[in-house]
Amino acid sequence: MNQPRKSKIQAKISVVANNQQKWRSDYLATEEPLEMRLVDPQRTLAITMRTPGADFDLAAGFLYSEGVVSKGEDIEQIGYCVDRSVKEPQRYNIVNVKLKPGLDLNLPALERHFFMTSACGVCGKANIEALKIRGCATISLEKQVKAEVIYSLPDKLRSAQGIFTATGGLHAAGLFDLSGELLKLREDVGRHNAVDKLIGSALLGGDLPLSDRIMLVSGRSSFEIVQKCVVAKIPILCSVSAPSSLAVSLAEAFGITLIGFLRGRKFNLYSGGDRISLSS
Hints:
The protein contains eight helices and 15 strands. It is an alpha/beta fold. It folds into two domains: about 30-125, Ubiquitin-like (UB roll) (Roll), CATH 3.10.20.10; about 145-275, Cytidine Deaminase, domain 2, CATH 3.40.140.10. The chain has a six-stranded mixed β-sheet, sandwiched between helices. A five-stranded mixed β-sheet has the order 5-6-3-4-7, covered by helices on one side. It has a two-stranded antiparallel ribbon with strand order 1-2. β1 (about 10-15) and β2 (about 20-30) form a beta hairpin. The N and C termini lie far apart (about 55 Å).
């Protein structure tokens, strides 16, 4: 089979400046659909527009965030499509997931065919009460994190964004320890996909729950992203832009420290401010 799809492609563009036009080569972030399928029972779970790369992490993170699986052992196998009736280049845009036999699956819920864009996340998300019914609990973290650590996170994230450096067109999600060390990073055209890739990597690596970690996302904090942190038990979520009103409500309900507009030596605290130490 051919190699998996590339995360960036080269394109010829024209640059207009001061009424002068010049042609040059540039890189674009790849955006292609990924279909996530269950093997048994056969179901299409979701189709999302994503940047190729860490596709198995993305599928695992989505299954975990949606409550289809509760631990890494629930997933027996993840692989690209082997159906010979599918054109060869597109096989890398289909991921098949084989779950552990005997799992109690909510088949009516799985029959919803989610369609996710790179911008808006999954439509029809569960509300706050539904998360409580699923067994998601308030997140506890007694340790405090110095504001100086929070200030340092965006530069560390940006310096590690290899694809963004080449294309300028990707979001990132980074996982840090409480001292501010970057442990893992994932990039994608969609914020929620980058988060799913990050959480899926932790799930497959046996690193959940992430109860002593900080997540930083580029862009804004939406309800969907806070929900994924609730499920993965991430106590501190930072973003370089604004949260939505529902994101703040969800963070407050589950004890997440929510930080927005993290730029330079300044940020806004929307919930859980007692975890942030302002002492030098």
